[in-house]
Amino acid sequence: MSNNRHRRSPSPKPPSHGHIQSLPGNFSLEWFVVGLHNIVLVFWVGGLWVAGYIVAPSLFSQLDDRQLAGTLAGNIFMLMGWVGIVATLILLAIYSLVIHSRWRVIVTLLMGLLVAVNMFVVTPELAAIRDSVTSALVAGSDEYRRFGYLHGISSGIFLLISLLGLLLVVRMPDRS
Questions:
Q1: What's phi and psi for 110, nearest 5 deg?
Q2: What is the pTM of this model?
Q3: Which is nearest to 112 in space by CA: 44, 10, 46, 24?
Q4: 116: containing domain
Q5: What percentage of the chain carries pLDDT values higher than 90?
Q6: Smallest Cα–Cα separation from 162: which of 115, 120, 123, 95?
């Protein structure tokens, strides 16, 4: 019979939510990258939540002109889209080069792709419908139905991006 009490257990695996690669002798670079990651991620995801779930509903509840509220909300969402594209590029570099986490790369790529679809496919269609009518959309018209359909798609995409971003924030990488 062998005595298993004195056997060493294998080294623990890095956490599945991302492990920061050690940078020998250069801890300040590691902390800089972690700080940059945290700032970029929280700025992007926090901005999404504030814009989509606080600012946009407030615009529609406080302004009498729904078209103006929609234009202002659209401008804010477009700005947040550009923030998302820049954040996607920065985060992908960090996740690929420093925080080796395949699932974070996949989630971030998916978020960036969804942002691009919303910005460059859905939003221009919404703007074209809005610009094609001389006044407010008429309930029951083809434009009204198409606008509602596309707005629903855009809202669903935004919700998915927001939830994926929240997942990244909740599962911040280890600093070990």
A1: -65, -45
A2: 0.79
A3: 44
A4: 27-170
A5: 57
A6: 115
